[in-house]
Amino acid sequence: MTHTYPAKTPRTPLAFVVNLIRGALIGMAELVPGISGGTVALVVGIYERALNAGNQLMKRQFRAVDWPFLIAVGVGMVTAVFTLSTVLHDFVENSPEYARGLFLGMVIVSIWVPVAMMDPRDVRRRGVMLIPLFLVAAVVGFLATGFTSTPQTDPSLIVIFFAASIAVCALVMPGISGSFLLLAMGLYTPIMGSLSNREWDVILTFMAGALLGVALFIKGLTWALTKHRSITLTVMAGLMLGSLRALWPWQDDNAGLLAPGDNALAVFGMTLIGAAVVAAFIVADRVSTARRDSEVVAESQPA
After folding, report:
1. How far apart are CA 227 and CA 229, in angstroms?
2. What are the φ/ψ torsions at residue 256 (nearest 5 degrees)?
3. How confident is the model at residue 1 (pLDDT cuts 50, 70, 90)?
4. Which side of the chain, N or C, has fewer Cβ within a 10 Å radius?
5. Alpha helical stretches, state H, the chain
6. CB–CB of 218/173 below 8 Å?
7. How much is the average pLDDT of 25-49?
8. How far from the centroid of its chain's Cα atoms is residue 283's Cα?
9. Phi, psi angles (nearest 5°) of residue 257
10. Alpha-carbon distance values, 171 to 3, 7, 218 (Å)
11. Are the CB atoms for 117 and 1 separated by under 8 Å?
12. For residue 42, how far is the Cα from the chain centroid?
């Protein structure tokens, strides 16, 4: 099944600001273990547009790239990473239960996003295959997010380069947290520290590795979404469900799951807030899409 990507972003100040905020939200997500930047891109309604722009860059189709959109999202991401790395790192480190509770609610609701992107007719035809595939992906995500590693104190730049090329795949693939992959490799703490301290040799090495990872991964995922859309989205949804394990608020130092503590009411309150924020994004995107579609239909009608 072929898919038509969304039209280019309107070149208005409001569109730029909206995409700037979307990029900032994605950048914030990439700083937090357990939540995927790709998931947030899905939630705020720019996932396929961003994937398409990245694919055009890889193919050197520079005139076709939606540059106002790409620049706004990129500036928002970079700004969030550099300005909020210390704040979010402190929030996750000092209030882990409240942080995970907030992100748990966000990801629970966002599972609906890839499901809603599927063609219902294709889902009905392939349901016998898609349901087991969803469950397998959920189990894989659950098991994968159970691994952690002792933080490395002074990783080499070569290690950081290749770790970045792996972790950045989470920016493209919803359900996989790049920061959690770094945590599993024992590199989350030193890299976050380098961001906070502006250690440019580490930062530039990480960026170079990330570019390599995106270049290798993005073409394959674009092909999968175009040729096997329902299967790809099913795997995404399953991984997102399985990744909820990493966001259970009460865990020990080895990512073992614990029973709710005395602060359960406050933590689950944060979960409801996170769910409400994402639900608001989804509803706003649906309303905007419906309005845009109705305008297109109206313009196509003869006068």
Report:
1. 6
2. -75, 140
3. very low
4. C
5. 13-30, 37-43, 47-58, 67-94, 96-110, 112-116, 120-144, 157-167, 169-172, 178-184, 188-197, 200-227, 229-242, 264-300
6. no
7. 78
8. 18
9. -80, 135
10. 21, 22, 10
11. no
12. 7
Tokens linked to 157: 């730049």
* Three-state DSSP state, 246: helix
Exposure string over 93-115, b if 16+ CB within 10 A, otherwise e: eeeebbbbbbbbbbbbbbbbbbe
What pLDDT shows up at residue 45? 78
Tokens 């050197």 sit on residue:
60
Task: Tell whether pTM > 0.85.
Answer: no
CA atoms within 13 A on the CB side of 149: 16
Compute the distance between CA of residue 180 and CA of residue 183 in angstroms, rounded to an integer: 5
What percent of the chain is modeled with pLDDT above 70?
A: 86
Q: Tokens 């889902």 — which residue? A: 123
Q: Which amino acid is at 25?
A: L
Residue with tokens 């502006």: 198
Q: How far is CA 165 from CA 70, 73, 170, 173, 242, in A?
A: 21, 20, 10, 13, 23
Query: Burial level of 300, CB count in 10 A (0-12/13-18/19+)?
Result: exposed
- Buried b vs exposed e over 23-60: b needs ≥16 C-beta within 10 Å? bbbbbbbbbbbbbbbbbbbbbbbbbbbbbbbbbbbeee
Total residue length of the chain = 303
End-to-end CA gap in the chain: 33
* Tokens found for residue 293: 């579609």
